[in-house]
Amino acid sequence: MVGAIASISRPDLFSKIITISASPRYLNDVDYYGGFEQEDLEQLFEATGANYKAWCSGFVPLAVGGDLESVAVQEFSRTFFNMRPDIALSVAQTILQIDTRQILRLVTVPCHILRIVKDLAVPVVVSEYLHQNITGESFVEVMTSDGHLPQLCSPDIVIPVQLKHIRYDISTA
Prior knowledge:
InterPro entries: AB_hydrolase_fold. With 173 residues, the protein is α/β, with parallel strands linked by helices. The protein has helices at 2-9, 38-50, 52-64, 71-81, 85-97, 124-133, 150-153, 155-167; strands spanning 17-20, 111-118, 138-146. The chain has a single domain, classed as Alpha/Beta hydrolase fold, catalytic domain (Rossmann fold, 3-Layer(aba) Sandwich). It has eight helices and three strands, in the order H-E-H-H-H-H-E-H-E-H-H. Helix 2 crosses helix 3 (52-64), helix 2 (38-50) packs antiparallel against helix 5 (85-97) and helix 3 (52-64) runs antiparallel to helix 4.
């Protein structure tokens, strides 16, 4: 979503945007299903603040989409454990409570929306929401991976899809 915001200010710097598991809002709203209720997030924030290491141990495998023994989970866990808990909580609160839906109609560069079959944080309907609400041309592609961060646990799936979209020339389509 940061790329989408930047493309509004400087569309001349973007030929396209390629997203993975993007969401303009994680909270459910009256006419929008983002995946979480406010109570869910409050519990998550409370757990993060109460016992950061325990929260990390449970969250990281779900986010990455791998088992506890995988290199991706081990590496991502290490980065989380090295982060100060107060900073991690602040970042989580910012990401999970932001609402960037209103900017989608201002995005005019082509967007390639890559989503995962089973993403713990971004429901399937969010990619369709992005597709319907971005003003520029958009494409949705589903990748067969789990987790919210498939680039960490399934690079063999993600990299070829990303390369295909990087090479895709809208002017010849």
